[in-house]
Amino acid sequence: MPHLLLKDLPRYECLLEAAKEFPDLDPSAVEAYLHLLRTGDEVFGITERNLADHAMSPGRFGVLMLLWRGVQPQAATLMGAENCDCGPRTPAGLAEAAGVTRATMTGLIDTLERDGFVKREPDPHDRRMMLVSLTPAAIEFLRGFMPGHFRAITAIMGQLSESERKTLVRLLGKISRQTAERAEPTAAAP
Which CATH number describes the domain made up of 56-158? Predict the structure, then answer.
């Protein structure tokens, strides 16, 4: 489901005109924001369709990637996951890492287990806890899926030079930090 329901974004001149009625409207900020939303929707749509072609949802794929990091610690470290949780993980730990509720994670794990991609086993150190790990079928799926997934990412980002990509990452990091500040409970209401 797209977050931005506008196919055609307003022209900058229209934003300038709207700013006359709404003095808090910064035309360049709104223009950048709308382009960010639309581009995010388009990129997410491509990824979502690619996953759907492989009978996979973005949520389920996220869980597989969190668990894949654990079975591929060297690759995870190379991709920047310095403090990689190696091996099986608890459902609560997966929920926290994914930023979803425990109930949502339980549903994702249930469907992945039903499809043979993960297994739950009692924690050998604490029998009250369950650990989730990838099955050989999941590893086979990821090894087959990931090359095409990475090709799609490379094609999408191929229009930018290496320097432009680094600039984009830096700029998105600034936006991300600002959204994190605004999301804090003490942030002033708009």
Answer: 1.10.10.10
